[in-house]
Amino acid sequence: MKNILLSLILMNGLLMADYSRDDKTNIVTDSYSGLMWQDEENIISDTWENAMRQCKVLELGGYDDWRLPNINELFRIVNKSSNYKSPRINKVYFRYTESSGYSHYWSSTTSISNYLYSWGISFNTGEVSTNKKTDDDLYIRCVRGGK
């Protein structure tokens, strides 16, 4: 089952992205997917449950329907170019991204093999991995919208 999920992630990663950034609201918009990403200077880490809660109550740019992204959505913003070094994200648009050392970000996608774990992504390496939901050292980036 993990192979199927990773295949879906990789296929999704082949899709195009066209970013724009609103510096007033610190929101990055992907016009291809319709997703709007939080990109604020105050980068925080917390447990999975608290990450879900923080996105749910986030009010940013006049929107209050933010959520924690699923693993496919989060993987969309990883820079997958073979010659691209760390950080594995486009810092022109995503200016406030922790990308040193461990620096994994939570997704809302629970592991199928163990419900105590959730998928996450490192913007340092582009690595996709599962992490225990009670870990409090994964970062939070909220998203809204989508087509």
Describe what you observe in this structure.
By secondary structure, the chain is of the alpha+beta class. The protein has a single domain, classed as Mannose-Binding Protein A, Chain A (Roll), CATH 3.10.100.10. Helix content is about 20%, strand content about 25%. It has three helices and nine strands, in the order αββββααβββββ. It has helices at about 1-15, 50-55, 70-75, and strands at about 20, 25-30, 35-40, 45, 105-110, 115-120, 130, 140, 145. The strands form three sheets. A four-stranded antiparallel β-sheet has the order 1-2-3-9, with no helix packed on it. It is globular. The two termini are about 25 Å apart. About 35% of the residues are buried. The model is unreliable at about 5-15 (pLDDT under 50).
CATH topology: Mannose-Binding Protein A, Chain A
Work out the strand percent: 25-35%
CATH homologous group name: Mannose-Binding Protein A, subunit A
Largest sheet: 4 strands, antiparallel
What best-fitting shape do the alpha-carbon axes yield? globular
The first-level CATH class is given as Alpha Beta
Domain tally: 1
Quick gist of this model?
The protein is α+β, with helices and mostly antiparallel strands.
Q: What key attributes describe this structure?
A:
four-stranded antiparallel sheet, alpha+beta, disordered N terminus, 9 strands, 147 residues, three-stranded antiparallel sheet
